[in-house]
Structure of Transcriptional regulatory protein ZraR:
Amino acid sequence: MQKILIVEDEKSISGVLHSILSDELPDYEFIIAEDGLEGLKQIEKEDFALVVSDIKMPKVSGTELLKQALQIKPDTTFVMISGHADIDTAVDCLKDGAYDFISKPIDINRLITSVRNALDKRILQKTNQHLKIENTTLKKKVNKKYQMIGESPALKKIQDMIEKVAASDARVLITGPNGAGKELVAHAIHAQSDRSKGPMIEVNCAAIPSELIESELFGHVKGSFTGAIKDKQGKFELANNGTIFLDEIGDMSLIAQAKVLRALQESKVSPVGSDKEIKVDVRVLAATNKNMQEEIKAGKFREDLYHRLSVIEIYVPSLDERKDDIKLLVKHFAKIISDEHGTALKTFDDKAIKALENFSWTGNIRELRNVVERLIILGSNPINAEDVASFVRK
């Protein structure tokens, strides 16, 4: 049962307050403190849904009680009671954090209304706090497949960037070598954004033939080309109210680039073979392993599209730039792979980890995972440096 604290040095008044409020609020337990010092001790001991306090009291005044209590428990809600001569003091109490004040002689209806409103406000604040916590938890909940493992300064820098950019709708260009984890960064941005409940649609621009990428991105209508046997929604439309991730954007044809640029400028797409324009609300994340400045100079990528996509640019370092994370990554992959194969978990001794740290990881994290899988299948338990020397390329 939630509790309400009445702090009043005059027993006749505290008795009246208790009688009135307990009748109106039978679901609350009431505790009476006879002065400010006792009230402060009660607040230190327990959490109260509401504190109703007189201002003029011996030992510790109501104003001092308010200040000290809010330092200890900032969420405490106060309704102050004041005599006519204390109106200025009561106003100062409001500035210091009190919800309301009631002047003496006490108007019972005014008191009941104020107390009920104060309790309603507290319930609303608590609900909002729970929603914020729940929302934060949802934003940070990333599919285990896309967890970012490591504690190196390079990774922490990326995580800080993700946290800053996720809250906005700014377009992000993610750069870095193949296998470094650009896809993980994109998923982390989406998961921590306000669009996390919407779809996350991925498009591998390098895997789609140039003649089909426009249809893939924007859709097509039946009969618009050979093989178009029915209408098809494009990836932009499927990603509405969510995020589209254009992986390997540097491999997109110039014709498709022009269409993407128009979609970004106007927030509209036109399916192939249709004059209809479809409004889309999509956040665009893109990734590439190419040097975009060189691609622009070579005439292979539109500079205006590059500037549209790279409002924020996040560089994902190679594994060789974050070797401090290899030990944690190996442990993480070992657990996942053992679960996938249904085998007992194998560990790696310190010399095996050291041997892995001495490699140059040209294939980055993707290569490391493959190596860990090979060692778990072929190596001893615990996996040692000899296993690494035997089953991993020089």
